[in-house]
Design goal:
The complex is a heterodimer of chains A (272) and B (305). In chain A, helix 1 crosses helix 13 (237-257), helix 4 packs antiparallel against helix 12 (222-232) and helix 12 (222-232) runs antiparallel to helix 13. Chain A starts with a helix and ends in a 6-residue tail after the last helix. The longest helix of chain A has 32 residues, at 63-94. By secondary structure, chain A is mostly helical. The radius of gyration of chain A is 23 Å and the shape is globular. Chain A is 77% helix and 0% strand. Chain B is mainly alpha-helical. Chain B has helices spanning 24-51, 68-73, 77-107, 115-123, 130-141, 146-153, 170-195, 199-207, 212-223, 225-241, 244-249, 261-270, 275-304, and strands spanning 54-55, 63-64. The radius of gyration of chain B is 25 Å and the shape is globular. Chain B starts with 23 loop residues before the first helix and ends with a helix. Classes of the chains: A mainly alpha (272), B mainly alpha (305). At the A-B interface, helix 1, helix 4, helix 5, helix 6 and helix 7 of A face helix 1, helix 4, helix 5, helix 6 and helix 7 of B.
Chain lengths: 272, 305
Amino acid sequence: MKPRTFGFHLVAGGLAVLWLLPILLVLTTSVRSFPDIASNGLGALPSSFTLDGFGQAWGEGGGGHAMLNSLLVTIPTVLLALLLSAAAAFALSRYAIPFRRTLILVMLSGNLLPPQILLVPVAKLAELLGIYDTLTALIVVQVGFGLGFYTFVLQGFMRSIPDEVQQAALIDGAGVVQIFWRIILPMTRPALAALGALAFTWTFNDLLWSITVLRTGSVMPVTPALLGLQGQYVSNWNVIAAGSVLAAVPTVAVFLRFQKHFISGLAIGAIK
Amino acid sequence: MAVLTAERPKTAARAPKRRRRVSPVLLAFVLVPLLVEGFWVFWPALQGFYLALTNWDGVSAPAFVGFGNFAEMFSDDIFKTAALDTVIWLVLFGGLSAAGGLALATLLQRERRGVGFYRAALFTPVVFSLVATSLIWQVIYQPDGVFNKVLGALGLESWQHSWLADPKTALYAVLVPALWRQVGYVMVLYLAGLKGIDPALYEAAKLDGATAWQQFRNVTWPQLRSVNSVVLSVIIIDSLRSFDVVWSMTKGGPYHSSELLSTYMYATAFQSLRLGYASALAVVIFVLAFGVIVTYLVRAFREDS
């Protein structure tokens, strides 16, 4: 091996290991027993192996229930947000809607707002509508806040679809809805996959909106529930570590499944 | 229904997209999402600006106080700490993640054996929530945790302490996990940008005998201009939004030493129930972000045409 190649692997490999170490540490902590951690310390090498931490985090710690809440919020949020923004993007990118550019930018600007300015009014709005402390509130807020960005990205993508495709459908007598649903939407699949994967992690990992519109422990999704777990199992680090491992499973799964789309999704904007 | 029958072939490349009559269905396609966003984003935002001018406990009617909330900030020591910490956070979190992300992207730019693994390793934390990330790092920072163990092994026992409980170190201890996660993300942005550079430029530079540094200075850096502006926007907006990692590690403490404007705003609103003052703090965050938002929109507008 040439010295330069060796040097590269040394530096890059060292960094990679350094970056993975915290994850490895949490994985090992999650399978240690409480007495082992209590007597040997968190920094000691593990001298026990048990999955009790996972059982506790999932069962009495409420992880299983929180996971269900998270999926009940995340899946409808992603589907609704993508459907609505795809519809808006379709109309704005392929038809002469008056003020179309202004509309796109206005929608995007909503997503760029710091969420802090919205927190108090959104909480009050949810109370007023009687949906405060329900998963519905979380879904509608997340959809509303995400729409701008998704619409912006999707309309950019849809504009690059050649017009001939749409014309052919028109000649066959297809209406707007059919063109959208049968022609344009299927052709937008790569962008939808990228945004879907991103939206899934964003929604699933959210903390701020959850603790703004929810109060009761039983409706909390995974991320805020993790914080609750921390308070409940103060120094039971095996349970807390197991909880954070469980909390990462769905997003890691989505990432592995949509790896290529996920990364291209993150890079949206950088290459433009 | 906007059904167009006779299309003139000559203008087919440009004109057909722009149908003159907007059908009700199309109108709904735009209006429904716009109304949803308007109802849950723009309407609340307007209320937020108004509430910043009031005193409100959330129960009785808001009392209009003009700019009283903003005047109060001048004598609010916690606000000063939070503002200062936010600036430190902007500079360190933003600066280090940008520099680190660029360095990593340049290091891992070329396709070669093992590079996929290295990229994936650095990128992995992006997938985790900031709450999970902060729990991971709390395990490390505990008094009997790995970090102190390593210091002990290096003979630096005097440096050992509880990093998150000491007002002098709390902010920086929270910053590390935030960076650990952000660097991989910025790296992805830069990798995408580097991929877009024409290899011929490097060929030409090499023919002219440019060193690696000269190639970076005269080819890579100028070519990355648009990516740099994206990264700058992303990190400023992310810095001002940073909340999860601080809230789950320290809640802004001890003694507000790791307080950011975002955590102070949340605590003021939902713990002290001073909704008016909290809204004013949110307006400060908005003002700090305003320049970036406008630049971003102008850029998007230009690219859209």
